[in-house]
Amino acid sequence: MTSIYEPSRTRAGSWAEAGLNFAATMMILLGMFQGLEGLTALIDENFYAGVPEYAYDISVGAWAWIHLIMALLLIIAGFALFAGSRVAAGVAMALAGLSAIAHFVFLPYYPVWSVVVIVLCVFSMWAIVRSGVFVR
Predict the structure, then answer these.
(1) pLDDT mean across residues, the chain
(2) Membrane-spanning regions, if any (predicted)?
């Protein structure tokens, strides 16, 4: 006789799916944050403080385009991550890492916000790895 109670998912499976959904949502939000940074730099080049003796001499206009391109890629990766494929997870991991590196280099221009985005990138990478999408 079969039971009327059939659990649809195990507890670990629901945690993994929640982690993957969280990571996908965070990737989309990180893309939006990057887009706002890029638009801010394009609209008002004097918004970000200039750093005179910085090792990475990149203009604010170049940073604007870097942030806008990363924003587009992060948003696309976030929506692709909702599908749960390994390829999307790998691309999302790489983009989150690149975003964290870009914000590390951008640190002197806008330090507090850069640290917040770096933490969100690392947390998104952790959620992708912890979800188990690479193990399926």
Answers:
(1) 81
(2) 20-43, 63-82, 87-106, 112-129
